[in-house]
Amino acid sequence: MSFTVVIPARYASTRLPGKPLADLAGKPMIRHVYERANESAASRVVIATDDERIEAACQAFGAEVVMTSPDHASGTDRLEEVARTLGFAANDRIVNVQGDEPLIPPALINQVAHNLQRFPRAAIATLCEKITDADSVFNPNVVKVVADHQGMAHYFSRAPIPWARDHWKTDHWPPREKTLPSGVNYFRHIGIYGYRVRLLSDFVGWAPAPTELTESLEQLRALYNGAQIHVEEAVEQPPAGVDTEADLQRLRQWMEANQP
Asked: How far is CA 176 from CA 157, 162, 179, in A?
């Protein structure tokens, strides 16, 4: 099951500039991500960046680094440049691991790579987890996904999908009823992706889809153009990533308390 992990790492984060180089237990955050990726079954781990400071830091701990354009509109565009630069074949598999996930379980990386192998018609594989509270269903920052019985995604949305018509009345928004309907499963999308390289090549040539622009969800461009996305419940619960200074401080405290 040969596949490559690519870790995009940008310096110019809006909410936390320089995030990949933030110190965690004596190492830059990006090194923790790199080490987790190397614990997976990946045959190769590559860090993609557009910043020389990140390049130098990663080379110092022995990582393979590919410098990419600073003008990419999305992470998928950056992945496509890496695949093209390294000469990957159309059916090669890439798993995109975000550079702000220093505790990502290697089992999740293997899971999405394996699912691309199991489901040849899927151009993308990703993960989800069950939602157990109504507040998350109505939270637009929690992306929901609906899939068929084989795990092929029908749609991703910031809205509450599927809509429990008989449970939630529409005379008030959000509904006053704050319990989940019985017999209905809701799933939160987890943002780790496995791609076939041919999908990346196609993706960069597609215009942004109307649904993508409406929801601000890049994966909807693939569905809009007929690409299939396989979704499966994660075999392990993923820990939260680092988006803000508060997230970084919480993670530092956790790592200090849990270091052997």
From this structure: 21, 18, 9
Q: β-strand 23-24 against 27-28: which pairing, if any? A: antiparallel
Q: How many CB atoms lie within 10 A of CB 27?
A: 16
What are φ and ψ of residue 80, in 5° steps?
Answer: -60, -40
Tokens of 105: 């379980």
Look up residue 52 and give its two tokens: 């020389």
CB 95 within 8 A of CB 109: yes
Question: Position 235: which residue type?
Answer: V
Do 89 and 70 touch, CB atoms closer than 8 A? no
Element at 254 (helix H, strand E) = helix 245-258
Each residue's pLDDT tens digit, 80-118: 999 999 999 999 999 999 988 999 999 999 999 999 999
Report the DSSP beta bridge partners of residue 195: 94, 124
For residue 223, give every residue at least 6 positions away whose Cβ sits within 8 Å of its Cβ, in sequence order, or none: 153, 155, 156, 209, 211, 229
99 membership: H or E segment, kind and range: none
What pTM does this model have? Answer: 0.92
Q: CA-to-CA distance for 45 and 63, rounded, in angstroms?
A: 8
Domains and CATH numbers, the chain: 4-251 (3.90.550.10)
Residues 158-196: tens digit of each pLDDT: 999 999 988 887 777 777 777 899 999 999 999 999 999
User: In this structure, what token pair is assigned to residue 199?
Assistant: 């999908």
Strands 124-130 and 229-233 turn out to be parallel
Q: Are 107 and 233 in contact (CB under 8 A)?
A: no
Sign of the Cα torsion 173, 175, 180, 181 reads: negative
pLDDT, tens digit (0-9, with 9 covering 90-100), for 202-257: 999 999 999 999 999 999 999 999 999 999 999 999 887 888 888 888 888 888 77
